[in-house]
Amino acid sequence: MKVIQLGVNEKALAKETSWDQKMRQAKEVGFSFLELSIDESQDRISRLEWSAEQRDNLRYLMQVNQCPIKTIMLSALRKYPLGSEDPGGYRLAYGLGCQAIDLAHDLGVGNVQLAAYDEYYHVKNQKTAKRFYRNLARLVHYASRKQVMVTVETMDDPFVNTLKKVADLKMMIKSPWLGAYADLGNLSAWQGIHRQNVVIDLKTNIDLIAAIHVKDTVAVKSKQAGVFKGLSFGTGDVDFLTLFRTLYRADYQGTMTVEMWNEDFEDAFVRAQAAFDFVSQGLKQVGYTLVGEE
Question: Is the pTM of this model over 0.70?
Answer without folding.
Answer: yes
